[in-house]
Amino acid sequence: MKRNNIFRMMPLLALMLGAASCEYIHEDLEPCDHYLRFSYTYNMKSADAFVPEMTNQEEAKQVDLFIYDAEGNFLSSQTVSGAELEANRVKLDLTPGDYKLLAWAGLNKEDYTWTSPATGDPMANWQMAVNRTDGEVDRELLGLFQGTLDLTIPAGGETVTEFPLVKNTNKIRLVLIDTNSGTGLEASDFTLSATTRVGDLDYKNQPLTDSTLVWTPYFQGVDTVASANGGVAYRAVCAELNTLRLLEDSPTALRLTHEGEVAPFLNASLTDLLALTKMESHDMSVQEYLDRQDEYVITVYLDMTGGKAHCLEILVNDWTIRLDDVNLIR
Known about the structure:
The chain is mainly β.
C-alpha cells in the first residue's frame, strides 16, 4: 500500500520540483527568464492594437528599447523586430534589481533624429525630433509610439510584464467639395497647411521647444462624387497631412487658401476643430481625446461662385460645423 501511495505522489512531487526550480536559484539550475509584452490600448477602442499597427507599417517595424538603472543612468539598449516583435514576447537579459525602461517604436532616419545615449547618460538627456526642411514637413510619417516603465526584476520566478505605449503621430484627411456640380476644381487650386509648435519630444513625451512647424500634404489629388440622380458629378480635392502629438494648450492652425487669394478662406485652430468631435459620452479630457484619436477626416463644402472660395460647412469626423469664412485662430 505504501509503495502504491508513493507512485501516486510522484507526478505531484515532479510538479513541485519544477516550480521550485524557478523559485529558488541553485548552482545547477539556469536563472529564470523575464519578458516584456508591449501594448497599445490608449486609443478610442481601448483595444490592444500594437502588433497590427507595427507589422502593417511599410518600414520601421521595430521597437528601440533603452534600459536605465534605478537612478535613470543608461545601461544598454536593444532593438525588437521580426519574429520577436510579431510574437510580442521580448526576453530581457537583466540581473535582479530595479530598472527604468524607455521605449520608442517606429523610429527611422528618414522621419526622425534621436539621441544615441552612452553608458551613464541620464534618461533626462534623451530626445527626438521630426526631420524638416526650412521648418516644413511634406512627407507621410511612419507611426511613432512611446512609453516609459519602472521595472523590478525579482531574484526568482519567471515574469511577463506589460509595457503600455502611446501613439504620437496623427493623420488628417481633407476633402474639399464644391456644392455646385460640374465645377472644374483642380488639386493645384488650393494651398493647404497645418501649423503646430510640437516638432520634438523628450523622454516624458513633452515638447522640447515651441518653434513653429508647418505640415503640408504628402498627398493631394482630385476625385469625383456622383450626384444622387446620376447627373453631373461633384469634384472634390482630397489631401492628407500629418502632425506629431497635438497638445490642447499649444497654438495650432489649419489654413486653406484658394489660388490667387492672399487670405485663407479657412483659418482655424486645428485643435479646437478636432476637439469639437469628442462625444459628450466620452468620459475623458480634451487632451486624452487628442492623444487617443489618431486619424481625422475634415470635409469642407465650398461655394466657388465668382471664382472665390467661400466655406459653407465643415464636417470633422461626422460632426457638422456651419460657419462662413471660418476664422477661429486662438
